[in-house]
Specification:
Blueprint (H helix, E strand, L loop, with lengths): L2 H15 L1 H11 L14 H15 L3 H26 L5 H6 L1 H11 L7 E5 L5 E7 L6 H14 L4 E7 L8 E7 L7
Helix pairs in contact: 1-2, 1-3, 1-4, 2-3, 4-7
The structure holds protoporphyrin IX containing FE.
Length: 187
Amino acid sequence: MYGLVNRALQQLVCTHCGDATWDEVRARAGVQEEVFMRMDSYPDELTHRLVAAAAEVLQRPAEELLKEFGRYWMKYTMVEGYGALLSDLGPTLHSALAALDGMHARVTLLYPALKPPMFRVTGMTDKGMRLHYHSDRAGFAPMIIGLVEGLGERYGVRVEVTHAVAKGGEHDHDRFDIRLLSGSTAT
Ligand code: HEM
């Protein structure tokens, strides 16, 4: 995973809990790096170790942390100068979700070794939609909930996101059911 992701995690923990807490997380995870380079690739396993260690240090479930990280990612990418990519996702939450693969394809121009996830939207109604998430990676599914909530916020849409189907066995991908809460519209 590109260092940009680990930097965001570091920033999230440092902002909320301080640098000393991050040092504790890093020590517990056995991670030497004090700084992650945005454009360098790091093993996915290192990111997983950091998330697991942060969950232990902060005494919060890892799933909850990943969900918060998803929400934070939407803010972090804006601050880091990727706002234009998010602005090109069309006028609605639905268009934005449908445009995620194209957006990551553009990210690939900046990060050539990117291994982006793939998404598909189905079952669009005035009440919500389904988001299908395909990735070679495991363990990042809870992040999608926060990402979709954060994306919804950008469109003034409140959503309830449920991890309806987990990858494994007969399922080759994860599925999230997105329910629009009252007063929200995705079209
Ligand atoms: C401008 C905004 C964004 C940028 C710059 C960006 C960039 C990236 C980068 C650099 C990675 C690491 C992948 C790798 O190193 O191989 C990544 C992973 C990921 N991105 Fe994005 N992303 C953005 C927005 C989004 C949005 C809006 C979503 C979904 C709603 C999303 C979903 C994911 C997921 C789930 C991963 C984890 C990797 C995986 O599941 O395989 N990203 N993204």
